[in-house]
Amino acid sequence: MGFDTGTTTFMILSTSLVMLMTPGLAFFYGGLAGKRNILGIMMQTFVSLGITTILWIGFGYSLCFSGGEGAIFGNFDWAFLNGIPFDQAYSGANGKYPTYIFIAYQMMFAVITPTLITGAFVNRITFKAYLIFLVAWQIFVYYPFVHMVWGGGLLAEWGVLDFAGGIVVHAIAGFAALASVIYVGKRKDTKSPPNSIPLVAIGTGLLWFGWYGFNAGSELKVDAVTTTAFLNTDVAASVAGITWLVIEWIKEGRPKFVGLLTGFVAGLATITPAAGYVPLWAAIVIGLVAGSLCFVAVQFKNKWGWDDALDVWGVHGMGGVFGTIMLGIFASTTINGQSGLIEGNFSFFMKETIAVIAAAAYAFVFTYVMLIVINLITKVKVSKEVEDMGLDAALLGEKAYDEGAL
């Protein structure tokens, strides 16, 4: 059948941009890691591109988007994409593009979400345990929330909205990261500096670039909401980065490049659930909230001694929570038909707040219990000898840099 060429091309581009975020995250985390653990953390990120794709085509897409109205899971009717012809039109886009590109777009979200968690337990997890974690966490944490929020499940029927993943991506990944940190404990060397801040900058740029596909693409068509989500994404990230920079400058007495980059990512995470529902001025406020409160969350983490090495909980977890609550406050009927607290809709505000807190709590508890179970199958935490040597050499037998080469 005939498809709209422009809309189809837009969705292919958005899907490609979201795919680029996974290598971007690998660079971001790889630069922040110590020099003996660069490849270990990048491997954990890149391997999701393969494993998650296999899971998604096999049964992940079906569990998320097939049947199960008002439920926690879908069903297996579309396992291995059975019953979905390659030229079938995606019903949610009024037949403007093939269902296959929607499947691929959602798959890229599935690829990156569990890899966000890896930054929390850098240089402490065995690769075998991580592979089990990657599979189990998607099936029992990620898939249910995709279905409940985006697949017509329980939370969708209750009226919960999440434009691009405040609940479905950032909150559940961030609180899973916190559970992982508490379970595996501290690194022996908690003072290890980033091995390459320029690599962090490259990763930030790729993430920011990909985030346009992540947020603007989540409108699933091209209209005024698409462009609003695009601009809101950029503005919130920019404001958050400068806010973080100024706060840290005042606190430390000098500006920090890593702080600026971290602030940008905090803004991107925080605007994600609200990008297509709030006016531009609200995106500025959300940027201020992200840059300040995510900074406070990181300080809180440091005070309590949680060794979240790359601040996944403070940036993504709390960013997802703050952003979802901000959606409940600032949603405007003039943007996308949904009113928030400032327009008198207290009920929607409470639904968003309760949903994100419940999601974060479930992700935390399930992840902690899951790690206990995985440890019964294969050891989760690396030995002290492996940690001293570094995961790159000990587990992979590879080095990120050959010190003898020019």
Throw out a few tags for this protein:
single chain, 406 residues, mainly alpha, Ammonium transporter fold
Taking all residues together, what is the mean pLDDT?
95
Q: Termini separation (Å)?
A: 56 Å
Unreliable runs: none
Oligomer: single chain
Cα-atom radius of gyration = 20 Å
**E-strand count:** 0
Which overall shape is indicated by the principal axes computed on the Cα atoms? Answer: globular
The major pleated sheet works out as: none
Helix count, DSSP H or I runs of 4 or more residues? 15
Say which CATH homologous superfamily is assigned: Ammonium transporter AmtB like domains
Percent in strands: under 5%
User: Into how many domains do the coordinates divide?
Assistant: 1
- Binned, the helix content reads 55-70%
CATH first level: Mainly Alpha
Overview of the molecule:
This protein is mostly helical. The chain has one domain (5-378): Ammonium transporter AmtB like domains (Ammonium transporter fold), CATH 1.10.3430. The protein contains 15 helices and no strands. α10 packs antiparallel against α11. The relative contact order is 0.15.
Topology (elements, then pairings):
Blueprint: H1 5-32, H2 38-65, H3 99-116, H4 127-150, H5 154-158, H6 166-184, H7 197-215, H8 224-252, H9 257-271, H10 280-304, H11 312-330, H12 333-336, H13 346-377, H14 384-389, H15 391-396
Helix pairs in contact: 1-2, 1-3, 1-7, 2-3, 2-4, 3-4, 3-6, 4-6, 4-13, 6-11, 6-13, 7-8, 7-9, 8-9, 8-10, 9-10, 9-11, 10-11, 11-13
